[in-house]
Amino acid sequence: MTDGDADLPRWGGVTEPTTVATNVVLAVLAFVFAARLVHRSAAASSAAGAWFAAALLATGFAALIGAIAHATDPSRDASLRERFWRSTLYVTGLIGATTIASVAYFAARGYARAALLLFAAIKLVVYLYRVVREPEFRIAAVDYGIALAILVMGAVTELVRRRAPGMTWLIAGVLVSLVAGVVQARRLALHRQFNHNDLYHVIQMAALYAFYRGGALLVDR
Fold first, then answer.
1. How far is CA 117 from the centre of its chain?
2. Residue 212 belongs to a domain
């Protein structure tokens, strides 16, 4: 057991309990929002809404597997914790790909749509190749950042072009996610028992709500 492992907070047999708890809450919210958006998208036959629901669903699975990874004591089974962490990174790649696919359907037509869908697929393959070789969060952060940049460009375009409903919520979700990213990158924490990961999850809950509201209005337009 390394010194870093010894410093991990523990409660019962669970390591990093606050991080686990905030991850679980984030996962539950993502699943609830995804289910609601799937229902609305199916009723409206909205491909954009369905892909956005898929992004929320992938977020839920990434958060849930992340919770299991943080809960796994590295001093007892470091390889198991590593496998869960890698799985979290793999699923995270789906968030970016499905987000871009949604943009392709609500902000693009014809060849532009096909190009965006092809880009989403290629980006996912490249991402998975990279994280298999180098399983680091920074790669996931860059990949997600690219998807958010495309999302905000699509939302701004639709807001200016058609005053499409829901776009301001999507832009707000991106901005809140950027704040969460800064917290994560700078390792800003409120307390030793509420670290940068925990604060990141809480801020991302607000971003999820904004994304859900934007997606719901997108489907209903």
1. 19
2. yes
> What residue type is 219 in one-letter code?
V
- Where do we find the tokens 């839920």? 60
Range of the domain at 122: 12-220
Closest CA to 204 of 166, 164, 175: 175
Q: Which two tokens stand for residue 166?
A: 């829901």
- Structural domains in the chain (count): 1
61, two tokens:
């699975």
The contacts of residue 12 (CB under 8 Å, 6+ apart) are none
Place of tokens 């198991």: 80
Burial 117-143 (b: 16+ CB within 10 A, else e): bebbeebbeebbebbeeebeeebbeeb
Q: Is 126 contained in some domain?
A: yes
pLDDT digits over 70-87, tens only?
Answer: 988 887 888 999 999 999
pTM score, whole prediction: 0.91
Within 10 Å of residue 184's Cβ, how many Cβ atoms? 19
Coil, helix or strand for 188? Answer: coil
Inside any domain, residue 5: no
- The answer as to whether 2 is a domain residue is no
